[in-house]
Structure formats: C-alpha cells, structure tokens
Amino acid sequence: MKPLRAQVARADLLRALALDDTRQHLTLSAGEQHWFGYQRVQAEQRLDLAVEMALPEAKPSPVPPARPETPTEAQHASLRMEHAWLVKTQPIEAPTQRDETTPALAPLDEAATTAQASQPQGQREDLLPWARLMPVLRRHLSQSRLGGVDVTMLLRHLAEQHSLRRLPRVQRSRWNPDLVVVLDFRDALWPYRRDMHRLCQRLLSEVGRTGLSLRVMAHGPAGGWTDWLEEQACRPRMPQVLDWVPPAPGSCVLLVSDFGWFGAPADGPPSPLTQRWLRWVAQQQKAQVTVLGLAPLGADQLRPEVCRRLPVLRWSPDGRLHPERAASPPSAEPAGLAPLLAMVAVTRRVDPPLMRALRRLNPVTPLHAGLEGAAWNHPHTQGGRVCTLRPQHQVGYLARFRLLPKHLHAQQDALRRQHHAHLRALLVQEENLLHAVQVRLARGGRQPPGEVEQTALRFFQHLVLTVQQADAATLRNWLPAVQAYLNELDALTASVHRQVFSELMAAVVQRRGQPAQALPGWVDVAAFQSAQTAPGRAVQGYLVQDLRQRRWLIQPQPPEAGQNGRALAPATQVVVRWQSQAGEQVRALRLGSAVHDLAGLDEVVGVEVNDGRQVFQLLPVTRPRGILGWSQNKDLALSLMLPDLRFKETTIADDLLRPHNYWRAMLAGQRSQLIIDTIHFTLHEGCIFRIGGDDFGSYLDLQFNSRRGKNKVVQRFRWIEPGSFMMGSPKTEPERNKNEGPQHRVTLTQGFWLADTACTQALWLAVAGGENPSIFKGNELPVENVSWDDVMNKFIPKLQTLLPKGAEAILPSEAQWEYACRAGTQTPFNFGKQINPELVNYNGSHPYNNGPKSIGRKKPVPSKTLPANNWGLFQMHGNVWEWCFDAPRVYTEETQTDPLGPIGNDSHAIRGGSWFFYAGDARSAFRYPDVKPRNIGFRLALRLIPSQGA
C-alpha cells in the first residue's frame, strides 16, 4: 500500500519540528497569533463508533464509504502552511528602436509651455436665473402700504349697489425698508461665493443702499460680521469686524447659508454649527425680526430641525421657490454625487465654474445645486480655491468614470478643455493623458492610443529631457511641479505608459541628488535603472526569506539554516511593497555589503527583482482548497500535490501555476489565489480526465465519449477536504423537523471527489446507455425518476469499468452530502438565511396558503444555471432530490466521526429539495427517507482506496 502524501513537504515538517522540540501537533493558524506560519494544538482523540448495518439476503451488500484502517489512532489536522510565495519570471524585452521618421526629442521651450488662452474660456453660469429668483424674494421680503383710491374697485362696488363704509385704497408693496442680508462666507460654501456676490449686486440695483444692509459672516454666527460694501471697496485695511446685534423689530433678515450641512455628517444628529445657527435664528425671532433662509441645497439635504424653525427657500434649479419642509433626515450621500466625483477624478483641478458645468452634465440629478458643495466638502476630495480628488481614492472613482455613458466622456472632455484653456501646459497635458487612457480602457483597451494620447505622451517624453538637461534656474521652476505631479499620478495611467514615467521618476530622483528610498509600484525597474547615469557599485547578493525572524532580507551571504533564498546577479534592483499602519509602502534597494531588512513576512504584499536581463516577482498566495500538500524549496520554487484518480502524486510546478486577480487581491489587502493550468491524462478509450484548479480549488474533469454521437460529455468533480462541521439544524431554525436534531459535531477524516452538479441526462446516457428515464428531457437537465437500485446496480458498475484501480464511484453519505452542501456555513442555506428564486429552483407557494398551488419554474433547470456555493458545487438546494448512500440515522448529541446510517434497507435518504417542493425542504439540514423515484436524481462521489493503489 502506498501511503497518502502529507499536506506539506518533508522539509517543511522537519523545519517546523526543529523550531520547537515539544513534538506537539501542528495545524494551520488563521488568527492573529502565528508560530512560524503554524499553530500548536493538542491532538484530538478519535471516537470508535460502531455502525449498525442491516443487510437483507435478497440484495448484494454495497461497499460503504472507506474508513481509516486504524480507527483507534489519534486523528488531527495535517500540518499546513498558511501561505507561500509564487515565483514568476519573465525576460526583459529589448528596447524598441526609435522610428527614423519620428522627430528627435528636445527639451521643452517656452512656446511649448505657454497656455492656449490668457483668460478662462468657460461660461460662468448663475445658480438660478434672476428673473425667477428676485420676484420670489420680493414677495417674501416686502412690506405692504396703502396708495390712492382704487377707482376700478370703487366702480365695481357701486355697480353692484354695495354699501361702502370707506373708500377702497390701492395695496402697494415695496422692499422692507429695514432689510438685512446675511451671507455665510465659510470656506465650505466656496462654490457659491460668486452667486452670493451677484445676489448683493442685484439687491443693490433693485432695493438701493438706503435701508439695505449687506453683512458677511465668515466664521459662522459667533464670529462677528463685516460690511460687504466695505470689503468690495478694496481699502488698504481690512473692514472692521462687528458683533452681531439683532435689527429693529419688524425688520427682515435674509440668511444665505447651508446651516452647517456641508462638511458635517449628514446622517447623524445636527452638527454644532447647525445648532448655533438655530440658536441665532431663535434670537432674531425673539426680537420680532422675520428671518428667511436661502440655501443652495437639494431636497434630500434639508434638515427637519431647520425647516421647523424658519421658512427655507432652496436656491437650486430643482427648487420650488417657496418654503419647503423636510419629511425625513437628510441622506448621507445625495443621489448623483458618485457620478459627479467620477468626472472630478479625471480632472485634476476643478474650480467652481467647472464644478457647476459638470454638475449640469450629471446623468442622475443635473438640477441638484447641493451636489457642488457636497463634492467640494466630501471626505474623498480636498477643497480650497479649487477641488481635487485625494490620490488614495482615485482608483475607485476612475473605475466608475469608465462605466459612465460614452457620450458623457466626450462632453466632459469638451467642458474641461474649455475651462482649462488658460492653465499651464503640464496640467493640461496631464489631464489630456488621464482622460484619453480612461476612455480607451472603457472601450476595451485594445485599440491603439489616439492622437490626443500620443500628443500628451510626446510632451512627457520632452519633459524627461527637460528635467535631465535643465540648468539650475529652469530646474527650480520645473522640479516642484513635476514632483507634485508624480506624487498624484494614478497607478493605472502610469502602468499603461510606465516606460516614460519611470524615466521621468529617475530624472527627478537624480536631479534632486538624493537616493531613491521609496518608489511607486508602477515603476519599471529596468527603465528606472537605465535612466540613471550613476547607478552605484554593483555587488553580489541574495534575497532571503528568514523563517526564524519572519523577515525578508537582502544579504551578501547565501541562505543559512532556517532561510530560503534566491541568488541575485550584480546591478540588481529590488522593489518591495509592504503594508504598514500608514498604508502601502514601497522601498527600492540596490545590493550592498550589509544586510537590508526589507519587511516582515506578513506585511509584504509583493517583491519584484530586476537584474537587467529578467524580472521575477514573488507573489504571496494562499493555500488553495483541494490539494494534498504544497512545498517550497530553498530556491523559493513552489509546487503543489493534487489528488489523482490513479492514486499517484500529481505534482504541479511553478510553470503551471499562476495567481488569480493578484492586483485586485493586493488592493483589497488580501493574498491571491492560485490557478492551476489543466493537465490531461487518458484513463480508458472511453474516458479522459483532466486535473487542475481555479477559484474554488482543485477540480477533476472526466470526459466520456457519448454513445449517441460524437459529442463529449464532461463531468467536473471537486475535491472535498476532510474536516468538521455541525450536522443538523438548531432548534431556532424555521421549518425545522424533529429528525434534524439534536445538532452535533461530525468529523470526516477522508477526503473525496464530489460532482459539482447532479448527474445530467447526457452523462447517464453516455455511461449507462439505454433509454432516458427522465420525465423532463434535455441533455443538460439532471436525470430524474431513477431509483437507488438503478444508480447502484446499473449506472455505477458501468462507470467503474472506466476508472483506474484505486478509484471507486459511490454515492455520498448523508454526512458527506450535508458537509459539502454547507461549504463551511451554518445558515439554513449555504448562501444565507433567506431563499429566493434567483438562487434556488423550488416551489414558492406554501402548502397552507389559499393561493396558486405552484409559484416557480415548474420544472427542473439545466445544470449550472444557478450560482454555486463556496466550494464550487451547483444547485445543492432545490431543482431535484439527490440520493444518498445510506438511510437516515437517529441523531444524538455525541460527536460523530465518519457517521453512516443503515445500509441495505428499502429506505434511503434523499437530500436537497426539488422544484416541486417547498423552500423548507431545500434547507441544508432537511432529510427525508424515500424508496420511490418520484423526480429523484443523484450526485456522484469518487473516493481513493489506498489498499488498491497501483
């Protein structure tokens, strides 16, 4: 008998045991406390439980699922490494020769950096047309008085023979003679500052200076006020700051403010600034002063507390221009804010006129004036005189910009060019390149760069020479701007054109005269090295993974005991990215004679080594599901061992391994999963199998030649690792049956292959032949209307003839089926507590309802129609019932190991529910004994038998 392979190599076991001589059992540590990648635990004693089996004489006794040969032996989880490092090597392509027709590069001259226009070309649009706003303000801020005799009204009364006690007088209205306008000039309201100035000018033209007081509050209600007219006079000294005193009774106050909404959490209680404004309003009203609010907010930004205290007019195109009430608290993020921030992300510098133009371009709420202030004061932006998106949040908003409609891309670009025609060339070309790259990626990224992108790229190529060859005076003008640009450069744009930007980074580092201690992850190390004219002395060194100190090191001596390493050629550049408390850090180092401590093993998220001839990356990967073991040799090469139907050790080396979504995993602070390229083996003339791995873990594909034509039928199996779970349902689970409890712990000591779908009709016909027993016909539909005896005596024996020795086809036991169905979950369904037709094919009507008898698809659906669980198994809930190998056993509270119900009775367990049955029957714990086919299918299992191994 050939023993099963351990889950790590022998060297890993010896290394772990050499670190501590207590000889305790070791298992995977998934928590915060690590012991060299492992965790010490005590051995778990296995219980030897006898299984009662009733075997009638009329039927042959099938072989039950395999049990360990020594049941009294202590069982424990195998020694497993938590993570390892995958080495990916790629040669460096030779630099492309410059086209002879391309003009020679030269430093930028003054003409190339001059702005296209001297003044902004964009139109400054008013927040609201004055012809619409001023009559409303006059109506609310006016004072009525009596004029002369109303002759028209007098004649009407006389014609109707009414008796008159007094002559009717004409009612005339005028602006309140004691009108005070309070302007909230806080920085949070900077996008509306020009609108407030324009409002003052309009009021002066209509009301006049007599009886009109324009007051500016720059620091809220407690900071005093200054006279707006004095500020506009531009005197040498600042206007005097005066304390607020309520106006005379009967006066009107127009308060233009957001009442503290911008810059404060909207979904919580009123901010301290809002509370101060409310107290200020109450003080004026107590002094018999009428207060009217004018707020540049949307309807979803009004606070009920403010609207109850005073009438508020919304200064917004979608406002109704009469006092509004807020029915509910304001929303945390107004509708349409995310698309607006996405357009800001591709515009480095957004001033208030451009922000307003982008807001009008918003595809969700273009008339929502409050979006301007919300974007200006958002935590992801940095607002001042201009608004910019913070670099750490730019990646997500750029991805959202690529999802916007294509016509918005062109309209946004046109607005940006119009508003930024007066800016310096560096900023304009930066925005041109950023926008062109994002638009090209939004359309698939396969088309070549357009004219705008090529022009911007040539500008930066000229800029590299400018920084390299500039004199001291010119360098003082260029270096700060270029340095600031490189600090804000997004990784996606830099990666698309990493050659140019790596050379620009090298030129900046060299002209600053300081060594590069930290480089962004997008830097091309080969380009960075070649652009530096003084690379320094090259020496021999080693990149070392020290398991004792749990560190990455660069040292001049070869790896020692407790270390894995890789020799580095002279003139090698090493770039390490690691995660610290301050965020992601990057360090670029050359080889030296001393030991360089790069970072801790748990902190590093990637290592890139470039020796000028090739680049290899060390990518952190997590242990895949469904492998017997994996190991890493002294040279950091990684290999996996997969379970094989031939009962042999299939080793997958580095050349067949690749990471899945490594960059996405790195951005999320996670380790990448491994993808195993498929390996083909021939078992029999009628059966070929392929072994590989994907997101769900290891898989085994069995391909059969169809007996009815040339079509190939493929059934995929998933390797289900040994483990423990809570079998049955808790007492609190809805629709729970008595035979589902008590809930108890079950341990499965043997792994097995399980089909990812129920057996399809195509597979049944390819293996068993004959007629299709199913009621609902279709090759991809699950076979149903088959009995337990049909599966065990007709289908499985024929399948067994196609399998190698050491591999046996069988039905899963009840414990194996529920363990695989749950896939590590404890909820009623493996996707949560609630069921819906998007996830399960079941009968949606309740048996006690008076409604229709069937709400659902009313028939089975093809395999893989609905989502898989966490282990890659499809439709474990609903669709068709599935036979189990054993009959339902009686549950007890005791822990069970490899439990098995009675075998050979007329009754056998069915699991999973059906399209015809209700939601409660599709739960993971639901079990039912059945003897008749009645729309019952099955799911195959394969097991390895060591005693029969080849």
* CATH fold-level assignment of the domain at 706-948: paralog of FGE (formylglycine-generating enzyme)
Radius of gyration over all CA atoms, rounded: 38 Å
Assign the CATH architecture of the domain at 706-948.
Alpha-Beta Complex
What's the name of the CATH homologous superfamily of the domain at 706-948? paralog of FGE (formylglycine-generating enzyme)
Shape field: globular
The percent range for strand residues is: 15-25%
Q: What oligomerization state is this entry in?
A: single chain
Secondary-structure-derived class: alpha+beta
Percent range of helical residues: 10-25%
How is the main sheet built? Answer: 8 strands, antiparallel
Mean pLDDT across every amino acid position = 81
Q: Which CATH class of the domain at 706-948 is shown?
A: Alpha Beta
Read across the widest sheet, the strand sequence of neighbours is: 25-26-27-28-29-32-39-33
Tally the helices. 22
Distance between the termini: 8 Å
InterPro entries: CTDL_fold (IPR016187), Sulfatase_Mod_Factor_Kinase (IPR051043), SUMF_dom (IPR005532), SUMF_sf (IPR042095)
Domain Sulfatase-modifying factor enzyme-like: 719-941
Pfam families: FGE-sulfatase
Organism: Vitreoscilla filiformis
Describe the protein:
This protein is α+β, with helices and mostly antiparallel strands and 950 residues long. Among the domains are: 137-160 and 171-314, 3-Layer(aba) Sandwich (Rossmann fold); 333-423, no CATH class; 541-612, no CATH class; 706-948, paralog of FGE (formylglycine-generating enzyme), CATH 3.90.1580. The protein has an eight-stranded antiparallel β-sheet. A hairpin with a 2-residue loop joins strand 26 (673-684) and strand 27. Helix 9 packs antiparallel against helix 12, helix 12 runs antiparallel to helix 13 and helix 13 packs across helix 14. The model is unreliable at 1-8, 19-78, 98-102 and 848-854 (pLDDT under 50).
